[in-house]
Amino acid sequence: MTLFNTSVTWNNELISRYDLAGPRYTSYPTAPQFSDQFSMSDMHAAIERSNATANPLSLYFHIPFCDTLCFYCGCNKIVTHHKERAMPYLQRLDREMQMQAAWFDTQRQVEQLHWGGGTPTFISDAEMTWLMAATRKHFSLLDDDSGEYSVEIHPGRVSASTMGHLRDLGFNRVSMGVQDFDAKVQKAVNRYNTPEDVRSLVQALRAQQYHSISMDLIYGLPLQTRASFTETLKQVIDLSPDRLSLFNYAHLPHLFKSQALIKADQLPSAQQKLDILQSSIEQLQQAGYVYVGMDHFAKPQDSLVKAQQAGKLQRNFQGYSTHGHCDLLSFGVSSISAFGDVYLQNSKQLDDYYQRIDQQQPAFVRGFTLSKEDLLRQRVINQLICHFHLDFQPIQEEFGIAPTEYFANELAELQPMVEDGLISIDDKGIQVHNTGRLLIRRICMVFDAYLNQGTMIRYSKVI
Predict the structure, then answer these.
(1) Same domain, 48 and 183
(2) How far apart are CA 213 and CA 202, in angstroms?
(3) Example GO molecular function term (predicted)?
């Protein structure tokens, strides 16, 4: 039996010892390292390198508008009932695509496309048609339903007919934020979707032949208990989503103003959160879901699980991904592109984003060019966080180093984890054991050259 088919081992003592705050490693280096000194010449040089690879493309569109405010949310969002705000924003997305299409080789096929937010279904069906037509005008989308084209939805705020319209436009995957079914919890965070709403929508999505349905839940919300969350999860499992993400709520009202609307004295304690997580992991595994890593679970036949078993799983800004070979181009306020050896992040402020696009300037305000050292550590972290092992030989061949010598300090720092049974290390590489899977972020932090450099950055706990 492989590690991936084995139930996760829960060890309270080890978790309490290693449960520090740290990055989620949707990128390395992480976003706080991006610099406003990144220049146009840096960007164009990176685009030339990207075009030379002829890698397929992944497109991300950030649609920031929401009808209602979910108190827990830390996303870049604009809460408004004014639907007329959508089209001016979509027109800027079109202009941004036009700029990038002039620089990138647009014959490269778009294997992956994602609308995130915000709430992408804030825009009307007609506006959805308009945006997809604009995208097809600038880029080479697939027409045979073989791409991974996904959209994030609020299941309590979208109709089956709109989902049918999105399916007709080429979308074939759905990620819905369920969060919690308990009525008291929903009221405490101002997020409403009943089990009946979600069940009806899921039935419609299956009838519309969506390839994959993913659901997001959050543990650690106010008034949650182990018993109440067990009931929510029971209802979710009964809906049989293909993938499921279980996110840890980090209460940071100084960073996210809406979180100040949550009553801190209603939040579960740190130990109660761990109890909820432990129970949830056991419940999901008993239901047949595979623990992919961190907060992701999937059915055994899902492409995430197959990619992990084949050694091809990757990680990007949406989490675990099967399309790590694609260059990611992102559009809209706050979105982050990743192609070749660079990251680019657009302005987080809507007015500034508009001004840049209207002046026919790129929307990015920060960027980062990865050095050979960054690429090395990126590879190490990606291998560990996706596959729970690191083979030294490929690293030695690709980067021309002797890993045991080059990472002597890091391997020494890992020794307590060896002694605690989280990992083993030999001349061939590093193997994460079952007891270490839940703590993989903490293991990866050892190879992060940017931690502990004196900059105060607030991260969530690794568990």
Answers:
(1) yes
(2) 8
(3) metal ion binding
Q: Is 66 marked within a binding site?
A: yes
pLDDT in tens, 65-120: 999 999 999 999 999 999 999 999 999 999 999 999 999 999 999 999 999 999 99
216 is in an annotated binding site: yes
Q: Which residues of the chain have pLDDT under 70?
A: 1-2, 4, 453-458
User: What pLDDT score does 457 carry?
Assistant: 63
Laid out side by side, the sheet with 423-426 consists of 389-391, 429-432, 423-426
Q: Does the annotation place 250 within a ligand binding site?
A: yes
Distance CA 249, CA 218 (A): 6
Is 152 annotated to bind a ligand? Reply is yes
Residue 245 is part of which domain span? 33-331
User: Residue 458 has what pLDDT?
Assistant: 63
pLDDT of residue 340: 85
Query: Is 60 assigned a ligand-binding role in the annotation?
Result: yes
H-assigned helices in 72-217: 86-103, 125-138, 160-168, 183-189, 195-207
Strand pairing class (173-179; 148-153): parallel
Residues 20 and 73 in one domain: no
Per-residue pLDDT, 161? 98
Residue 455's pLDDT is: 53
Q: Are strands 212-219 and 243-248 parallel, antiparallel or unpaired?
A: parallel
- Counting the structural domains of the chain, the total is 2
Q: Is residue 400 part of an annotated ligand binding site?
A: no
179 is in an annotated binding site: yes
- 191 annotated as ligand-binding: yes
CA distance 294 to 272: 19
Tokens of 130: 């308009």
Any known ligand binding at 332? no
Examine the domain organization and report whether 146 and 7 are in the same domain.
no
Contact 167, 209 (CB under 8 A): yes
Please indicate, yes or no, whether residues 20 and 65 belong to a single structural domain of this protein. no
Is 73 flagged in the annotation as binding?
Answer: yes
Using the 3D structure, point to which of 331, 358, 382 is the last residue of a domain. 331
The alpha carbon dihedral of 197, 199, 204, 209 has a sign of: positive
| Contact call for residues 260 and 186 (beta carbons, < 8 A) | no
State the CB neighbour count (10 A cutoff) for residue 169: 17
